[in-house]
């Protein structure tokens, strides 16, 4: 029986849908799925320079769990670099305290407090918006 994965808190979704290598034969279309929580782990540890204890607290997971997520993220990114694969960001097991959207017209990212409705991009007023919370 598969173990049920607890959700990990992510403050903000990644600001991109993916990364693509250039200067290589782009025939290889398959990419690596980087979960939101893996992106968050890299951000907290390697960008915000937090120690694992602080980062684990922010994500609402134990330290060993954080270490696992972080390790998985690094391996995926390393594999993408070495094997020149695309990186796709996917929702994974994240939980966010706000509803995040991306505008498909101007690519603005914005959030709306839970419980409030929105049908429009605040930057360009386009109604062509997409939820990032799955
Ligand atoms: Zn917009």
Automatic annotation (TrEMBL):
Gene3D superfamilies, alphabetically? Winged helix-like DNA-binding domain superfamily/Winged helix DNA-binding domain (1.10.10.10)
Task: Show the InterPro entries listed in the entry.
Answer: RNA_pol_sigma_r3/r4-like, UPF0251, WH-like_DNA-bd_sf
Q: Name one Pfam family in it.
A: DUF134
Taxonomy, superkingdom: Bacteria
Give the UniProt family note.
Belongs to the UPF0251 family.
* UniProt-recorded name of the protein: DUF134 domain-containing protein
Source organism of this protein record = Marinifilum caeruleilacunae
